[in-house]
What does this fold into?
Amino acid sequence: METTSNERIHCLIIGSGPAGYTAAIYAARANLKPVLYQGLQPGGQLTITTEVENYPGYADGVQGPDMMVHFEKQAVRMGADIRFGLATKVDFSSQPFKVQIDEEKWIEADAVIISTGASARWLGLESEQRLNGYGVSACAVCDGFFFRNKEVAIVGAGDTAAEEALYLSKLCSTVHMFIRRDEMRASKVMQERVLNAPNIKVYWNKDTDEILGEKHVEAVRIKDTKSGETQTIPISGFFVAIGHQPNSDIFKGVIDMDEAGYIKTIPGTSKTNIEGVFASGDVQDKIYRQAVTAAGSGCMAALDAERYLSAKGIH
Ligand SMILES: Cc1cc2nc3c(=O)[nH]c(=O)nc-3n(C[C@H](O)[C@H](O)[C@H](O)COP(=O)(O)OP(=O)(O)OC[C@H]3O[C@@H](n4cnc5c(N)ncnc54)[C@H](O)[C@@H]3O)c2cc1C
It folds into this structure.
């Protein structure tokens, strides 16, 4: 691979969500002079939501985009070098590691922290995009609380959908669950829990036709996949639970990952199978997927990187 270097640095952080910025704050304070590339979504997933109520420290809640501006400002204040740019290729075959930015320049780094996050999969409806953050959500743990004692709907048939439906059933009066086929993909035990929950109403062979509402979600129109018949159900919240895609394509074949593309880390650490390359946040976490857990693992990655570099005598 042709990798003429344009710049040599200590610590490169890829991604600007809670994990990347937290890694940048810790790495900067440890004098690793981190350079962080923000990618196509500066601030990460929280920039597409409205109110965040579960991040500690914000007693009155905070708008997701505002919170991410605070993260960035804090990282800059600590001396992190925050840049626009997308990591497009990597070469981790030897030290220093090489990462290509925007298909042009190559950066050489002694340690790399991958914090590229994950993206929720969406149905692809116009109404889903328009009402995102106004009743449409891809995260029951994040947003279920806003719909206490209200009727909500959820789409999905896997284990995560079952888990999220059960989570919502403890908060909401009724959970309408739409399944495209006449069976669920979730494990037997999860299916049983869903089917036995008194306030989860499962609809088989149903597609979401449209989410209805001007300024916020008011109802959903579903369509029977066999008869084509439609039905409108009044709801306040609409949850999409059809999976997440970790943003790990550029690391395929380079770093160990599971079959879904989540980067594998050594349990209790942020270490990947390549010494000196660390992973934090949603790109390596398919279970918790929260801003606070992403931030926590960003801290771990910076501390792991710092220890790695000092053990090597690199700084
Ligand atoms: C609608 C919605 C609402 C949510 N609400 C809440 C909530 O209320 N509370 C909560 O705790 N969590 C919430 N979450 C979950 C939370 O947003 C995530 O857990 C968290 O953002 C994960 O942080 P991260 O840093 O791992 O990655 P992300 O936030 O996904 O950020 C990934 C970053 O990596 C960058 N990137 C990707 N590929 C590249 C590349 N090749 N080169 C450079 N950069 C790259 C992206 O541009 C982005 O900046 C919500 C999620 C969604 C989708």
In short: The mean pLDDT is 95. DSSP finds seven helices and 19 strands in the chain. The CA atoms of residues 35 and 81 lie 5 Å apart.
